[in-house]
């Protein structure tokens, strides 16, 4: 019969998320100290530091993509949907500041490194596919196109510009969001070059 779990896994993930956001990394020792648990309890719960970090990233990225999709779906026009998707980091930062800082400032590949369990690697890959699906969906709604040119411009609007705006300073003010929205609308105003 397995031993009963004595530690709240979400609390451990929250603590790890905070440490990664603040320091760019986390060790079992630093997490154990910050969470007030033993190293063994962490290994018992997650198996390895790679699995723990994979779970931290997967949870944050899934929540972010869920929010980004909700914001885009609630918009009244295709252009507004793109602006809403671009603003998702600011909205997410208000709800989950440590998760947003981690996603925006920490290099996922450097954080996760080798040793990530296959099921977590597969789940993270599935998230990448969700991002592409959102970009394609927004491109089709905006221009009725899903080619590389359209998706590339959409990537500029929904990924590149928000990353540039929020990576340096996670400023969620209305003024900062208005500037981002203006930049996104300016990019969308330039006609796409023809396919081919």
TrEMBL record:
<keyword id="KW-0805">Transcription regulation</keyword>
<dbReference type="InterPro" id="IPR001647">
    <property type="entry name" value="HTH_TetR"/>
</dbReference>
<protein>
    <submittedName>
        <fullName>TetR/AcrR family transcriptional regulator</fullName>
    </submittedName>
</protein>
<dbReference type="Pfam" id="PF00440">
    <property type="entry name" value="TetR_N"/>
</dbReference>
<keyword id="KW-0238">DNA-binding</keyword>
<feature type="domain" description="HTH tetR-type">
    <location>
        <begin position="6"/>
        <end position="64"/>
    </location>
</feature>
<dbReference type="InterPro" id="IPR009057">
    <property type="entry name" value="Homeodomain-like_sf"/>
</dbReference>
<feature type="DNA-binding region" description="H-T-H motif">
    <location>
        <begin position="27"/>
        <end position="46"/>
    </location>
</feature>
<keyword id="KW-0804">Transcription</keyword>
């Amino acid at each position: 019969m397995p031993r009963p779990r004595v530690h709240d896994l979400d609390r451990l993930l929250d603590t790890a998320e905070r440490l990664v956001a603040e320091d760019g990394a986390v060790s079992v020792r630093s997490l154990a100290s910050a969470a007030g648990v033993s190293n063994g309890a962490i290994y018992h719960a997650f198996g390895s530091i790679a699995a723990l970090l994979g779970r931290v990233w997967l949870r944050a990225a899934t929540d972010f993509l869920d929010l980004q999709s909700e914001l885009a779906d609630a918009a009244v026009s295709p252009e507004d949907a793109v602006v809403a998707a671009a603003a998702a980091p600011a909205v997410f930062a208000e709800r989950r500041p440590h998760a947003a800082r981690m996603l925006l400032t920490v290099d996922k590949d450097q954080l996760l490194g080798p040793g990530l369990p296959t099921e977590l690697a597969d789940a993270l890959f599935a998230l990448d596919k969700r991002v592409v699906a959102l970009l394609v969906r927004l491109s089709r709604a905006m221009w009725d196109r899903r080619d590389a040119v359209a998706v590339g411009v959409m990537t500029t609007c929904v990924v590149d510009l928000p990353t540039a705006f929020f990576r340096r300073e996670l400023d969620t003010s209305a003024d900062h969001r208005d500037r981002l929205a203006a930049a996104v609308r300016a990019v969308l105003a330039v006609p796409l070059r023809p396919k081919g």
